[in-house]
Design brief:
The complex is a heterodimer of chains A (457) and B (117). The radius of gyration of chain A is 28 Å and the shape is globular. Chain A has 457 residues and is an all-alpha fold. Chain A contains 19 helices and no strands. Chain B has a single domain, classed as Winged helix-like DNA-binding domain superfamily/Winged helix DNA-binding domain (Arc Repressor Mutant, subunit A, Orthogonal Bundle), CATH 1.10.10.10. Helix content of chain B is 56%, strand content 14%. The chains are: A mainly alpha (457), B alpha+beta (117). Chains A and B meet through helix 2 and helix 4 of A and helix 2, helix 3 and strand 3 of B.
C-alpha cells in the first residue's frame, strides 16, 4: 500500500513539474514530453540504486539543470517560439478540435455571406431603391449577429432553455424593426437602425457567456472579446480593401470591369463573413497572443488626457463657450463613449490586486476632464433646448449623454476611493460590468419605445 | 575533474554524432553512454543535451521520431542521417588536427609531468 501511495506522490510531483515547465514559452509541449521521459528514466535508475521516490525525483530534476538556464538554451535554439504564433501553435496541439471549430466558423461565415444575398432573390437589391436600402439598414444585424451568437451557442454547448433566451432578443428585434410602421427614412427609423446592432451585440454576449450572463467575470470577458474582435475586424477589413483594390486593378489591366461583382457580391459577403471569422480568431487566439485593446488603451489614455486638458485650458484662457450646433451633442457623446472605452479596457487588463499607480491617477484625470468638457457642452445645450424642442434625435443623444455621464461620474468616485486606498479595485470592475445592461436597455428603448412615443416620425 | 564549459559545449556535437553512429538512441541513453565512455569524468547538465539534439535535427544531421519505451512512455528517438555521418567525419578530421597540434607542443609534456607540482 505504501508503495502505491509513493507512486501517486511521484505522479503528482511530475505533473506539477510538467505544469511548471510548460509555462516557459521557449519549451513546448513535445519538449516537455521528451524531458519527462528523461526524468522518469533517471528516477527509475536512481530508485533501482536504492533511493526512495522523493530523493530520486529531486536528484533527477536537479540533473536536468536549472530551469532558467534550460529555458534560455531552448530559447536560443527555438527563438521563433518567443513570437507567439496563432495558427501553427494551435495546429500542433489538439489539431482535430481546432479544425472542427475552424470548419464551423467557416461554415457560419459562408452562411452569413449567403444570407445577405437572400433578400436579393425577392427583388430587394443592396443598391436598389430607397425602400430596399432602408430594409437593409434596419435588418443588417440579422444577417450577421445570429450566426455569431450561434457560433458561441455551439461552442459553449448551451442548453435549449439558454438558446431560447438567446433567441428572444433577436426575435423581438426582427418584429420591432419590420412590423412598426416607420415613416420611411424618418428619425425614429434611422435611430432604430443605429441602435439595434448595439442591442444585439450585447445579446450575442449572452451566447458568449454560455447563458451565464449574470456572471461578472463572463461579462468582463465579453468586453475583452469585443475589443479584440474590433481590432481583428479592422485588420481584416484593411486586408480585404487591399485585395479588392488589386482585383479591380489587375482585371482592369486586361480590360475587364469587375467593380459590379465586388460591389454586389464580394463586399457585402466579405463584410458579414469577416464578422464571424474575426470572432472565431479572437476565440482561437486567446492566451496565444497578447491582447491588443489594453495596449492601445495604455498608449492613448495619456494622449487623450493631454488633449482634453489643453482644450479646457484653451477654453478658460480665451473665455469662449461651446458653439452649439446640430452635431455637437453627438460629438460629445462619442467623446464620452471613447473615454468609457479607454476606461473599460484599462480596467479589463489591470491586475485587480496591484496597488494604485501613476496610470490609475492618469485615468482619473482623463475621466474628470471628460466630465468637465461634457458638463460644459450639456450646459450649453440644455440652456437652448427649449428653442430646439424635443426631437427623437436630441432625446436619444441626451439620454446617451446622461447614461455615460452617470457611468463616468461614479467611476470617478470609485477611482478616487481606490487611489486614496479607501477601497480596492474590484468595485470599479464590478461597476463597469454591472452597468452593461443599462446600455442594452437604453438601446432597446430607442429601438422599440421611441417609434411609439414619437409617432414613427 | 571539472571540464570547462566551453570545452563541454564544443565537444557536445561530435560526441552526440559519434554515439548516434553506433545506432538509433534517445536522450537519456546518450547521457548514460557519455558518462560510461568518459568513465564518469564528463558530466553534462542533462537538460542541455536536448537543445543540442534539436539543433542537429534542424540542421538535418539527425532525424527524430516518436516511439515507445519499455513501460510504454512516449520517447523521442534520434538517428544519424547521411549528412550527419559526413559531418561526423568532418569533425573527426578537425579534432585530429587539434589533437595533433596539442601533442606536438609542450602541452604534451604536462601529461608526463608528475601530479601535484
Amino acid at each position: 500500500m505504501a508503495h502505491v501511495g509513493g507512486m501517486q506522490v511521484l505522479e503528482e510531483r511530475i505533473d506539477e513539474w510538467r505544469r511548471y515547465l510548460s509555462r516557459r514559452q521557449a519549451i513546448d509541449a513535445t519538449d516537455v514530453d521528451e524531458l519527462e521521459d528523461h526524468l522518469r528514466s533517471q528516477v527509475a535508475d536512481l530508485q533501482e540504486a536504492g533511493l526512495d521516490e522523493e530523493e530520486a525525483f529531486l536528484i533527477g530534476v536537479k540533473r536536468l539543470g536549472e530551469l532558467d538556464t534550460l529555458s534560455r538554451e531552448f530559447a536560443r535554439e527555438h527563438s521563433e517560439r518567443l513570437w507567439k504564433r496563432l495558427v501553427v501553435a494551435e495546429a500542433e496541439e489538439g489539431g482535430a478540435k481546432w479544425s472542427r471549430e475552424a470548419l464551423v466558423a467557416l461554415g457560419l461565415a459562408v452562411a452569413a455571406a449567403l444570407a445577405i444575398k437572400v433578400p436579393a432573390l425577392f427583388g430587394l437589391s443592396l443598391n436598389g431603391p430607397e425602400a430596399a436600402q432602408l430594409f437593409y439598414a434596419r435588418n443588417f444585424s440579422f444577417f450577421v449577429l445570429p450566426f455569431l451568437a450561434g457560433f458561441f451557442a455551439w461552442k459553449r454547448g448551451m442548453s435549449s432553455a439558454g438558446l431560447l433566451g438567446l433567441a428572444a432578443p433577436f426575435i423581438l428585434g426582427v418584429l420591432a424593426v419590420n412590423l412598426l410602421p416607420f415613416d420611411p427614412g424618418g428619425y425614429t427609423e434611422v435611430l432604430a437602425a443605429l441602435h439595434l446592432p448595439m442591442a444585439l451585440w450585447l445579446a450575442v454576449g449572452i451566447g458568449y457567456a454560455g447563458g451565464a450572463w449574470r456572471s461578472h467575470e463572463r461579462r468582463m470577458n465579453y468586453v475583452r472579446f469585443s475589443g479584440e474582435w474590433f481590432i481583428y475586424y479592422v485588420l481584416i477589413a484593411l486586408g480585404g480593401g487591399v485585395l479588392m483594390m488589386f482585383t479591380v486593378f489587375i482585371f482592369g489591366a486586361i480590360g475587364l470591369d469587375v467593380e459590379w461583382l465586388l460591389e454586389s457580391w464580394i463586399l457585402p459577403c466579405g463584410v458579414v463573413g469577416a464578422v464571424i471569422i474575426a470572432g472565431w480568431l479572437v476565440e482561437a487566439k486567446q492566451s496565444v497572443i497578447e491582447n491588443m485593446a489594453p495596449v492601445l488603451t495604455q498608449l492613448f489614455t495619456p494622449l487623450f488626457t493631454i488633449m482634453l486638458m489643453a482644450f479646457l485650458a484653451t477654453m478658460v484662457w480665451t473665455g469662449s463657450g461651446i458653439d452649439v450646433e446640430r452635431e455637437v451633442l453627438i460629438g460629445f457623446d462619442l467623446l464620452l463613449v471613447l473615454v468609457v472605452g479607454l476606461l473599460l479596457y484599462a480596467i479589463s487588463a489591470r491586475d485587480p490586486k496591484a496597488q494604485p499607480g501613476f496610470f490609475d491617477a492618469l485615468q482619473l484625470v482623463l475621466v474628470i476632464c471628460a466630465l468637465l468638457v461634457d458638463a460644459m457642452a450639456l450646459w450649453a445645450i440644455l440652456a437652448r433646448l427649449s428653442a430646439f424642442g424635443f426631437s427623437p434625435n436630441r432625446v436619444a443623444a441626451l439620454g446617451e449623454n446622461l447614461i455615460l455621464v452617470v457611468n463616468l461620474g461614479w467611476s470617478a468616485v470609485l477611482y478616487t476611493r481606490f487611489l486614496r486606498k479607501r477601497a480596492g479595485f474590484a468595485p470599479l470592475e464590478r461597476w463597469q460590468t454591472a452597468y452593461l445592461p443599462v446600455y442594452a436597455v437604453w438601446a432597446w428603448i430607442v429601438v422599440v419605445i421611441f417609434p411609439l412615443v414619437f409617432g414613427f416620425r | 575533474m571539472d571540464i570547462g564549459k566551453d570545452l563541454v559545449a564544443a565537444s557536445a556535437t561530435p560526441l552526440v554524432l559519434a554515439i548516434l553512429s553506433e545506432g538509433e538512441s534517445y536522450g537519456y541513453a546518450i547521457i548514460k553512454r557519455v558518462e560510461e565512455l568518459s568513465g564518469g569524468e564528463l558530466q553534462w547538465t542533462d537538460g542541455m543535451l536536448y537543445p543540442v539534439l534539436h539543433r542537429l535535427e534542424r540542421n538535418g544531421l539527425v532525424t527524430a521520431s516518436w516511439g515507445r519505451s519499455e513501460p510504454g512512455r512516449r520517447r523521442k528517438y534520434y538517428r544519424l542521417t547521411d549528412q550527419g555521418s559526413e559531418e561526423l567525419a568532418n569533425q573527426q578530421r578537425q579534432w585530429q588536427v587539434i589533437n595533433d597540434t596539442l601533442r606536438s607542443t609542450p602541452f604534451k609534456l604536462f601529461q608526463l609531468a608528475p601530479q601535484g607540482i
